[in-house]
Amino acid sequence: MLNLSPRASVTEIWKKGEQLCSSSLTEWNIDFQRQKYAGYYCFRVSYVASVIEDALCLGNAEIVFGPGDLSWTLGAALVYQLDTREAFASISTIRNLKMSSTVFLLVLLLSVFLVVHCSQIKLPMLGRKVSNVGVPLPSYYLHAKR
After folding, report:
1. Over its length of 146 residues, how does the chain's per-residue pLDDT go in tens digits?
2. How many structural domains comprise the chain?
3. Which domain holds residue 78?
4. Does residue 47 contact residue 75 with C-beta atoms inside 8 Å?
5. C-alpha angle 30/33/37, rounded to 5°?
6. Inside any domain, residue 50
């Protein structure tokens, strides 16, 4: 659709995309089946160009894509791969973090205390009568045998 050379820069992609999106469907010389997807072509051009320029931080660098067609799925795959690498890098940084056993024990105990405190676990005590009205809990008081 864009008739770009294999060595086209991002600026050339933007220019061809503007020409394509500003023209009417009759100037595109496409068949009726492909006319219903014509709006997607403008989206694809701008999406791929902005992914190359902004998300991959390549600017107007010379990149050769080929020999296949370039579509928005390639741009999405490149962005996904970039995000995956950043996530893996942050996980490996956390994995290489050294922590003393005292700090680890303190963090573990604070976490357990926080979980117990937030869940409000209350158990009935032996030898005392439970005095919650309306709550059908068993009472564990000892009956004196006489």
Report:
1. 667 766 777 778 778 778 877 776 666 666 656 666 667 777 777 787 777 777 776 666 656 655 566 566 666 776 677 666 666 665 556 566 676 788 888 888 998 888 877 776 566 666 655 555 555 555 554 454 44
2. 1
3. 10-95
4. yes
5. 80
6. yes
